[in-house]
Amino acid sequence: MKEYPVQRAAALKPLPDPDMLVFGKTFTDHMFLMDYTAGQGWHDGRIVPYAPLALEPSAMVFHYAQEVFEGLKAYRSPDGGVQLFRPMENVRRINSSCERMCIPQLPEEDTLAAIEQLVRVEERWVPAKPGTSLYIRPFVIATTPSLGVHAAHDYIFCIITCPVGAYYKEGINPVRIYVENQDVRAVRGGTGYTKCGGNYAASIRAGERAEEQGYAQVLWLDGVHRRYIEEVGSMNVLFKIGGTVITPALTGSVLPGITRKSCIELLKSWGVPVEERLITAEELFDAAEAGRLEEAFGSGTAAVVSPIGEMGWGERHVTVNGGQIGALTRKLYDTLTGIQWGTVSDPFGWTLKL
Amino acid sequence: MKEYPVQRAAALKPLPDPDMLVFGKTFTDHMFLMDYTAGQGWHDGRIVPYAPLALEPSAMVFHYAQEVFEGLKAYRSPDGGVQLFRPMENVRRINSSCERMCIPQLPEEDTLAAIEQLVRVEERWVPAKPGTSLYIRPFVIATTPSLGVHAAHDYIFCIITCPVGAYYKEGINPVRIYVENQDVRAVRGGTGYTKCGGNYAASIRAGERAEEQGYAQVLWLDGVHRRYIEEVGSMNVLFKIGGTVITPALTGSVLPGITRKSCIELLKSWGVPVEERLITAEELFDAAEAGRLEEAFGSGTAAVVSPIGEMGWGERHVTVNGGQIGALTRKLYDTLTGIQWGTVSDPFGWTLKL
User: Fold this and answer.
1) Could you say which of B55, B139, B208 has the minimum Cβ distance to residue A102?
2) Residues 6+ away with beta carbon under 8 Å from B305
3) Which domains does chain B have, with CATH numbers?
4) Complex ipTM, two decimals?
5) Which of A15, B235, B265, B314 is placed for a possible disulfide with B298 were both Cys, Cβ 3.0 to 4.6 Å?
6) Residue partners of B134: CB distance under 8 A and separation at least 6
7) How far is A140 from chain B (nearest CA, A)?
8) Chain A residue numbers touching B164 (CB-CB < 8 A)
């Protein structure tokens, strides 16, 4: 496996209180950097002290958002070891995002090796308290100092890591969401299936408005018909209706979530019927009003699963499972987190021990 | 008018050969910076030596593309003075972009003052050779070092400038374009009407594929029906059909171009009928095949007008005006550039002399 040179930080930071960790605000001592230069390809992968990036004001990332990212976690297992969850899925997905954004493909094995080596270097930062983890953020930015609207000739691939607290500190409380009727996150032919910055920028306004109205997130509709459900906030979404779990099909405007995929694979292994298909807001609310919507939840790396307790769509308001987490949602959460933290066996070979 | 503090560069760069200027690659000696801090608002506007920006690797602009920009030019008039073209339109538009991206509004008069002062400081960089100008690029980036998907609390507003050569060095040659059937640039409910980075990132792939096939740009269709024409490349598009100029209506997914607006106002002042409405690729190609498409051109700050000589749509290929620039396109180009460079009178009050 590729081994990158390491320049150690002169002084290490004190570890934060694991009870006080806020997502994405505290970063570790080191980061991984690798440069891309046209004609030379990706080169000079290295682990260096965590420090600001100095970029020309004309760097393309500041103007044309040629940028993609990934998110995954390192988990402390009961034996004191550290493990990753399906990291090669993230590596493949960042390359899918890169393709759409005209960013050169990353070497997959070497990229996984970079993630592994950085986590080993930062091993003391992987917290042990239940529910905590080390969040890993690989990202690529276009650095060419040029204002022409073209693919850049120069990029930086960077990986930063930050310890994160338990997502559910006080038990899993289902959230309130509503159907967004104004803003659209993505459309077929666009970039919805990628983790490019522009998708997230476009989603901020709806999320802010939802919070102002006391909702945790929005349920996104498709950009073409404004009828079909796509995602919830920045998570995939799954519904249990009449015993079958239904999740929006990957039509190009939906992110192919790794937690989504893992939920589907687990459910199928349990004999639960799963349908990946188009589902309208109307079908969903009709099912809820007929008492057939049994469970609803978002899926993503941060929360694993996030149960939905209440949903609004214009004048229609429904409660899901009496506002409580459903049994199947709970089982998915317990199984996935058990596999991720190494407290239950992993029959799928999803974990990678470092 | 607001006057900002100026920190002069220790050494000034030599001026480039005006015949060798490439768009967006050579930057001047200074830039304007202003910071935004939550609770404090925009503060510390200043002109400083042009230098790299040092940002935390977790700065939101690198991950979630919370960023907007503008583009305008300073022109050297025959009397040796320098003038801007409708700069307040750019200031208002950046604030429209900011609103969509949840970026705090810029103070409009002070922002215009910043543009004016920076151009005065960089006055020696405004080239005098016909067709050359000083391109001005204001932009805002989110700098908060946090990975949560929310509006940032901290921003930088920056203005950089670069001398640019004549867009048409060897006379105006109409370009070949084709209708893009796969990728989509924007959709209603999205961000198409703004100059946010994500729009441009999403457009790069189609532009690259067009160039590979010998076309200058793509003609974008709407994301909903994939029938209605929206823009050409990163320009607005106008067609003269049967004596009337038709341009796509501003439905939310089309940029409200300042050159577009100026073309419409000029055409109306000349008594030319103008329609801002939906137009399908089918209507356009039918008109062309029936000999009714008289002229076609893109409009934007860089080229002013860019005549279209040939268009492809699947198996259909048409030539516009025998591949030559049309008379009305030519008149628009001559009038607009005349007003911009101060060689013809400006009855509209569009120019701002510094």
Assistant:
1) B208
2) B259, B263, B297, B298, B299, B329, B332, B333, B336
3) 30-166 (3.30.470.10), 175-341 (3.20.10.10)
4) 0.97
5) B235
6) B28, B73, B74, B82, B119, B122, B125, B126, B127, B161, B162, B163, B164
7) 8
8) none
